[in-house]
Amino acid sequence: MASLPLILFGAGGHGKVVADAAAGNWRVFGFIDDARTGEHGGYPILGNQKALEKLKEEGVHCIVSIGGCAARAKVQQMLEDMGFPMAIVIHPSAAISQSARIGAGSAILAQTVVGPDAVLGKGCIVNTSASVDHDCSVGDYTHIAPGAHIAGGVKIGTQTFIGIGSSVRELSSIGNHVVIGAGAAVVTDFGDGITALGVPAVARKAS
């Protein structure tokens, strides 16, 4: 894998973190970004979306380095439609069970844990020092923020955001397009489109 070229779509703060994670296993070409030029995190910004066709000819893999779930989903779908192969980026310090399954376009960052028989959809983020324990199911384009901990057997839907430092009790179910606030403790199930905050987490409004 070390010889495979990689471009990252999205030159923000999250992009720096993904590039750092990728550096050990990929040959990072640089970033694509529609708003920035120059360099970012020590890598060149190669252009905007118009540069993609030329890069495709060079056989690059892609990952979307955008933290927002909906934006990441939109861009990854565009790249897939263009025929780009989507990378899986795993930081060398991550502890990934051999029986875990991780979808294309996902980023598993520093000091994370993904347990046995956990299944992550495509375009997921398990951010710095977060954990997803055994037998969890995490839907496409969901973001597990830094320091969040998901206990065993939890089911999480698509494009859901689990906030920094939060925790989710074992066997809980969280729907699609949910926001779990920073530091929240999820001890009950939540359906689609909910924002839940606090200890214990309580639904506040539709997200």
The coarse silhouette is: globular
pLDDT average, as an integer?
Answer: 95
Which percent band covers the strand fraction? 25-35%
Structural class: alpha/beta
Cα-atom radius of gyration: 17 Å
Q: Treating each run of at least 4 consecutive H or I residues as one helix, how many helices?
A: 3
User: How many strands, which pairing sense, and closed or not: the largest β-sheet?
Assistant: 8 strands, mixed
Which series of helices and strands comes N to C?
EHEEEHEHEEEEEEEEEEEEEEEEEEE
Uncertain ranges = none
Distance between the termini: 39 Å
Explained architecture:
This protein is of the alpha/beta class and 207 residues long. It folds into two domains: 5-87, Rossmann fold; 90-200, UDP N-Acetylglucosamine Acyltransferase, domain 1 (3 Solenoid). It is built from three helices and 24 strands. It has helices spanning 13-22, 52-56, 69-82, and strands at 5-9, 27-32, 39-40, 43-47, 61-64, 89-90, 95-96, 101-102, 107-108, 113-114, 119-120, 125-126, 131-132, 137-138, 143-144, 149-150, 155-156, 161-162, 167-168, 173-174, 179-180, 185-186, 194-197, 202-206. The strands form four sheets. Strands 6-9-12-15-18-21-23-24 form an eight-stranded mixed β-sheet, with helices on one face. The mean pLDDT is 95.
